[in-house]
Specification:
Layout: H1 10-17, H2 27-44, E1 48-58, E2 61-70, H3 72-75, E3 82-88, E4 94-98, E5 100-107, E6 110-117, E7 134-141, H4 148-160, H5 168-180, E8 187-188, H6 190-197, H7 204-213, E9 218-219, E10 228-230, H8 234-247, H9 258-265, H10 283-286, H11 308-318
Helix pairs in contact: 4-5
């Protein structure tokens, strides 16, 4: 995960997975999409295509379940499910640039798909939201990372055979969140967005209600506790925070970085409504689920690489 989910080793990530990672808070989802891109391109070389069934970022590793089938027609669609992302290093806003698109040509009752290159994203190297520098991430998989029908079947199996699995509570929680997850990339956390504005952080319910009241969809993400996924544009998320600041002011004399000043000085395009939305309560909130696992002990995680020199020294001392 150090290679996949950080920007510290882009050359290693490219040589292993054929893409550049995104050094952002949603790096764990981009890690999943990088691996799916590798599987997709590897399968396409042999006339096969993949269908992601379940893609999970768990603790310090990723686990993916995919179906590989043979169909030359579907292989051609692979480029339309692959994209490069231009990511702002300041506010982490991103722009998706697909590698291809499908144009349908109709002739009578016959519809013939034509595969075309996608139009390029804006050539500017600065973020339209805050003026920060844009970095390139990808290419990576831009299609769905879960198959809801498959996840539902697995969830039913776990519920019916919970006695066979020692971690069934965690499995049930993670599968439930994955089954509700939106197909859109990527997730965000209100705390991270609030940090760009140097303001008090709105609660998860307040943020979700404002997005729902704006006419957009939301879900949780299995990859990060306290995160949300939405089809709302980044401009709306920033307008949401500016509306929040009207009642929770920010001291401008304390703001030092230019990106935050740009975000705060922008006028509100769409005023957010924080009234509690009726559809806020999801099924996963109504029942007790272990949706995000807590570390079993302090400093828990992958251990250090064994040191043969240290081992030899200790053996010599014992002799």
């Amino acid at each position: 995960m150090t290679v996949l989910a950080s920007g510290n080793y882009p050359e290693k990530c490219f040589s292993n997975y054929g893409g550049i990672p995104a050094k952002t808070e949603y790096c764990h989802e981009s890690a999943l999409r990088l691996v799916l891109h590798t599987l997709s391109t590897s399968a396409a070389r042999y006339g096969r295509f993949i269908t992601p069934l379940l893609s999970l970022s768990i603790d310090f590793y990723v686990r993916l379940f995919v179906k590989v089938r043979t169909a030359p027609v579907e292989v051609k669609k692979a480029m339309t499910k692959t994209a490069i992302y231009h990511v702002c290093q300041s506010c982490q806003a991103f722009t998706e640039e697909p590698l291809g698109r499908i144009v349908e040509r109709k002739k009578g009752d016959t519809v013939t798909p034509l595969y075309k290159t996608a139009p390029s994203a804006p050539s500017s190297d600065t973020c339209v939201e805050c003026g920060g520098k844009l970095h390139v991430a990808g290419p990576m998989w831009s299609g769905p990372i879960h198959d809801p029908a498959f996840v539902k079947k697995v969830l039913e199996h776990v519920n019916e055979n919970s006695s066979n699995y020692g971690t069934h509570a965690r499995m049930k929680g993670m599968l439930t969140v994955a089954s509700e997850e939106l197909d859109t990339p990527f997730y965000f956390t209100p705390a991270k967005v609030a940090s760009h504005f140097h303001c008090e952080c709105p609660s998860l319910d307040d943020t979700a209600s404002a997005i729902l009241n704006g006419g957009y969809n939301i879900s949780r993400s299995h990859a990060c506790a306290g995160s949300l996924k939405s089809d709302a544009p980044q401009a709306f998320i920033h307008d949401l925070m500016r509306t929040w600041i009207l009642d929770h002011p920010v001291r401008m004399d304390k703001i030092k970085d230019e990106a935050s000043k740009t975000l705060l000085n922008k006028p509100i395009g769409t005023k957010a409504d924080f009234t509690r939305h009726a559809g806020l309560e999801a099924i996963s909130n109504k029942i007790k689920l272990v949706r995000y696992q807590v570390n079993p002990q302090p400093n828990w995680g992958p251990g250090a690489r064994p040191d043969s020199k240290k081992k030899n020294k200790s053996s010599a001392a014992a002799e």
